[in-house]
TrEMBL record:
Protein name in the entry: MFS transporter
Family (UniProt): Belongs to the major facilitator superfamily.
Alphabetized GO MF terms: transmembrane transporter activity
Location in the cell: Cell membrane
Pfam families associated with the record: MFS_1 (PF07690)
Organism the protein comes from: Streptomyces tsukubensis
Main location: membrane
This protein's GO CC annotations: plasma membrane
Domain Major facilitator superfamily (MFS) profile positions: 30-414
Transmembrane regions: 36-56, 68-88, 100-119, 189-209, 241-259, 279-296, 303-321, 327-349, 361-385, 391-409
PROSITE patterns associated with the record: MFS
Length: 441
């Protein structure tokens, strides 16, 4: 969902004299194929992951669950992604990038179709957990593939299409699930339909993706991975960015999980189908994340990150007004702010991690999806006891925590850049103050 950040691994360009094919450049056939394939991957991933948000009221009714209980169908999938992304990062280094991504998308589609036949809610949760674990294989690999195969001057464009696939997939998955629900009156048909479309996305990806030609296979080393993660944890700048990703995602998933429950009750009394149409607001995030990247290039990360979080707070406040004329624009404003903040924070993590030579991007993804799993479920408990007003206070506090963290980043020192020569120790040099800025799309 939204901009995920740059490669988990530091990438050193290979010169043409090495005999390895040059990286893909914008306008070339292989660049178009790679971009189309990663767009399909992003589409299938977030369509599969978040389609059930539109089905939560139906799941609650069918299985006699509370809103918090129904939201576990979202939380278990994102939790599995959080847990799986770090070990699968190591596995992706030892295996084929494209094979792992193809199998991840295919497996997620199969588990999606199987979910339509779940006899009870516990079985549905197991299948959703397996879906999340499968999709972690894609998340652990896609960024590395792009950084290896695409030229640095064209990486922003390729990343933008992947991010656009994420945002559009999140919206389409919800709308398809909601539309099928209105026709069939069954969440099973909805989740099965999304699974079939995800299978089509997996097939498009498999047929389109150019093979890895610049990938250097490495033996999986849990010790090296653990060291890279351990070095990423003490850095105060990365810690604050992890916190921003955690709280922002927790607030975002909470709003989208429980807004449907609010809109089908008094004073709105909308049908589930009409309430589901509000998920169209999700697509606004695709535009705001791209805009945030351009603004970062022109100004700075902090000068974009802080206003983005303030915008998200304004959207929350606007949604408090019990009128659709306020709720709809409030949701759009909140979504714009979240995606812009996530775009900046994740890009900042990727750039700073590369400069430090650590596995910061993997850790960021871990906290990001933990925020979705834990924060979203906790929000259901708040909603059950305090309704929308209490939920607004809860999500508002989360965003304020992120805002305070963002404000403290003004004093963040530039990292020491590390490059690791083959077979040699890490050589460190002081990075210029704006070194991390150049990595942002």
């Amino acid at each position: 969902m939204g901009r995920i950040g740059w490669s988990i691994h530091t990438f050193t360009a290979v010169t043409d004299s090495s005999g390895i094919a040059p990286p893909h450049v914008s306008g070339t056939p292989n660049f178009r194929r790679a971009s189309a394939a990663l767009f399909a991957a992003g589409l299938g991933t977030f369509m599969t992951l978040y389609c059930v948000q539109a089905l939560l009221p139906s799941l609650a009714s069918d299985f006699d669950l509370s809103p918090a209980g129904a939201s576990l169908s979202v939380s278990v999938a994102t939790l599995a992604m959080a847990v799986g992304v770090i070990p699968l990062t190591a596995l992706s280094d030892a295996w084929s990038r494209t094979t792992m991504m193809s199998l991840a998308l295919g497996a997620a589609a199969v588990f999606g179709v199987a979910s339509a036949f779940a006899p009870n809610f516990p079985v549905l949760l197991v299948l959703r957990l397996l879906q999340g674990l499968s999709l972690a294989g894609l998340q652990a690999t896609a960024m590395s593939y792009l950084s290896e195969e695409v030229h640095s001057r064209s990486l922003g464009q390729a990343m933008g299409l992947y991010v656009a696939g994420n945002g559009i997939g999140g919206m389409i998955g919800r709308l398809i699930a909601d539309g099928v629900l209105q026709v069939s009156d069954s969440w099973r048909w909805s989740i099965g339909a999304v699974g079939v479309i995800a299978a089509v996305c997996a097939l498009v990806f498999h047929l389109s993706i150019p093979p890895s030609v610049r990938f250097v296979r490495r033996d999986p080393s849990p010790r090296a991975l653990a060291k890279g993660i351990a070095r990423a944890l003490p850095d105060s700048g990365l810690l604050r960015l992890y916190l921003i990703g955690f709280v922002a995602m927790a607030a975002f998933v909470t709003i989208y999980n429980y807004l449907g429950f609010r809109l089908i009750a008094d004073p709105f009394d909308l049908s589930e189908g009409t309430a589901g149409l509000l998920f169209i607001a999700y697509v606004s995030g695709s535009f705001s994340s791209a805009l945030a990247g351009r603004l970062v290039d022109r100004y700075s990360r902090q000068l974009v990150l802080v206003p983005a979080l303030v915008v998200a707070l304004a959207g929350l406040a606007l949604m408090l007004i019990p009128q659709l004329g306020a709720v709809i624009p409030g949701l759009v404003v909140f979504t714009v702010g979240f995606f812009a903040a996530h775009a900046v924070a994740s890009g900042w993590v990727g750039a700073r991690s590369s400069a430090l030579g650590v596995q910061g991007a993997a850790v960021y993804l871990f906290f990001y999806y933990i925020g979705s799993a834990v924060g979203g479920s906790a929000g259901g408990t708040v909603f059950s006891h305090s309704q929308w007003n209490g939920l607004t206070v809860y999500t508002g506090c989360l965003v304020v925590v992120g805002l305070v963290s963002a404000l403290t980043l003004r004093r963040l020192r530039p990292p020491h850049h590390r490059t690791v020569a083959a077979g040699g120790p890490a050589a460190e040099r002081e990075a210029p103050a704006d070194a991390s800025e150049s990595a942002e799309a």
